[in-house]
Write a structure and sequence with these properties.
Helix content is about 20%, strand content about 40%. It has about 400 residues and is of the alpha+beta class.
C-alpha cells in the first residue's frame, strides 16, 4: 500500500520536473551556435515502462528516418527523453522524432543565423507592451540550463546594465525612456568549452489608455467616387484602447453582399505611444446596388463609441480625367511649336523655296520676271520726273 503511494508520489515529482522544461511546440526555431535541446513531455506514469525502448530519429533530405545514437556526433547527446545540441548548427535543421513503444513525437526544427553585428537575433525576440507608470518587470531565467550557468548579464540595446551577474532583473514603474531591446545573456561551461544563450525582449512603452475615448480619424461622412465593375477599398482608422474593437456594418435587408469583404483588424503603436487601429472593407466588382448605400465603420469600447460613414457614388465619366487632359495639352503645344517653326523656316528660306518650286515644276520664267522688273523701274523713274517738274 505504502509502496504504491510512494511510487505515485515519485512519478508526480518526475512529471512536474519534466513538464517545466519539456517542449510542446511542434515547430521550433533555434539560433545558430547556441546550446539547444528537445525534450519529450511525459504526460503520465503510464508512458513509462522499464521494458520500453526509447529511440530518437532524424529525417534526412530523402525523408527517410535515420536513428540517432549516442556518440554519433560530438555535438549531439541523447538520454531518455532529451536530445541536446552543443551547440546547434545550420546543418541540424530538419525533423526529429522521439519514439517510445508505439508512441511517436515529432518536432520540426529551423535554425536561424546568428546576427554577427548585434548582441541578439531579430527573429528570436519576444515582444511586450507595457503602459507607462505600470510595472515593468524583466527576469533572466533559464530553468533547463540553470545548474550549468556560471553568470548572467542583462543588456539594453546591446549595452550592459550594471546589474548583479548572478540574477539580474528589472522591476520598476515604466517610463518612456525604458523602451528598447533587453537581452539576457547566459554563460555556461560544458566539457571545458564556453557557451552563451541569449533571450531578448522588445519592450514597447505606451500611454495609459485606461481613460482614452476611442475616436475614428477623418471626416464623419465620406463620398467615394467609383467606377462600375471596378474594386475599391475603404479604410477605417481609429485611436483606441487595448480592448476596443473596430468593425464595419454593411449588411442590407436582403442579406450580405458576397462582393463585400471585411479584412482583419490591424493594431500598432504610434511614435507617440498611442494605440492605432485600421480595418479595411474591400468591395469587389462594384454594381448599382453598392451605390448610395451607407457603409458604416464603428469603434466601440468602455470609453464610448464613434461611427463614420462611406457612400459610393458613380464617377462622372463626362469629366476628362487628369492624365488624359495633360496628355492632350502636351500634344497641342507640340503641334503649335511645329507650326511656328515651319513658318519661320518658310520666311527665312522663301527665295530658295520659290526657286525649288520653279525647278520642280520645270518652268523658265526669267523673261516674264525681267519684264515685270523693267516695268517697275520705268514706273518709278516716271514718277520721279513728274515730282521734279512740279517743284
Amino acid at each position: 500500500m505504502y509502496r504504491g503511494e510512494l511510487s505515485l508520489t515519485l512519478w508526480a515529482l518526475i512529471f512536474i520536473n519534466t513538464s517545466e522544461t519539456c517542449i510542446l511546440r511542434t515547430h521550433i526555431t533555434a539560433v545558430e551556435g547556441e546550446p539547444f535541446y528537445l525534450k519529450y513531455c511525459l504526460s503520465s506514469p503510464v508512458h513509462k515502462n522499464e521494458t520500453t525502448t526509447i529511440r530518437w530519429y532524424r529525417s534526412n533530405r530523402s525523408q527517410e528516418r535515420v536513428e540517432l545514437k549516442q556518440g554519433s556526433s560530438p555535438r549531439i547527446t541523447l538520454w531518455d527523453y532529451v536530445l541536446e545540441f552543443w551547440p546547434v548548427e545550420l546543418d541540424d535543421r530538419g525533423s526529429y522524432f522521439f519514439q517510445m513503444g508505439n508512441y511517436t513525437q515529432q518536432w520540426i526544427l529551423n535554425i536561424t543565423r546568428r546576427n554577427k553585428h548585434s548582441c541578439f537575433t531579430e527573429k528570436q525576440v519576444t515582444s511586450k507592451i507595457v503602459e507607462v507608470k505600470k510595472v515593468l518587470q524583466i527576469t533572466c531565467e533559464n530553468s533547463y540550463y540553470q545548474k550549468l550557468i556560471n553568470s548572467t548579464s542583462l543588456y539594453k540595446n546591446c549595452k550592459k546594465l550594471p546589474e548583479n551577474d548572478k540574477n539580474p532583473s528589472i522591476r520598476k514603474n515604466a517610463e518612456f525612456e525604458d523602451q528598447g531591446f533587453y537581452s539576457c545573456v547566459f554563460s555556461l561551461h560544458r566539457s571545458g568549452k564556453l557557451f552563451t544563450i541569449t533571450k531578448t525582449f522588445n519592450i514597447t512603452i505606451v500611454e495609459d489608455h485606461s481613460n482614452i475615448v476611442p475616436v475614428l480619424l477623418g471626416p464623419k461622412l465620406n463620398h467615394v467616387e467609383v467606377e462600375l465593375g471596378k474594386d475599391v477599398q475603404l479604410n477605417c482608422c481609429a485611436l483606441l484602447n487595448k480592448n476596443d474593437v473596430v468593425y464595419w456594418i454593411f449588411e442590407k435587408e436582403n442579406g450580405p453582399d458576397p462582393n463585400v469583404h471585411e479584412e482583419e483588424e490591424k493594431k500598432a503603436v504610434t511614435s507617440e505611444g498611442k494605440l492605432h487601429s485600421s480595418r479595411i472593407l474591400r468591395i469587389e466588382n462594384i454594381n448599382e446596388n453598392n451605390l448610395n448605400f451607407l457603409y458604416n465603420c464603428t469603434v466601440a469600447g468602455e470609453g464610448g463609441t464613434d461611427t463614420k460613414s462611406f457612400i459610393l457614388v458613380k464617377k462622372d465619366m463626362a469629366d476628362i480625367p487628369g492624365h488624359i487632359f495633360t496628355r492632350g495639352m502636351i500634344i497641342a503645344i507640340l503641334i503649335l511649336v511645329a507650326v511656328v517653326c515651319f513658318v519661320i523656316v518658310g520666311v527665312i528660306y522663301r527665295v530658295d523655296l520659290v526657286l525649288f518650286y520653279r525647278h520642280l515644276m520645270g518652268k523658265d520664267e526669267t523673261l516674264t520676271g525681267n519684264a515685270y522688273h523693267n516695268a517697275g523701274i520705268s514706273y518709278l523713274m516716271l514718277s520721279l520726273r513728274n515730282h521734279i517738274k512740279n517743284h
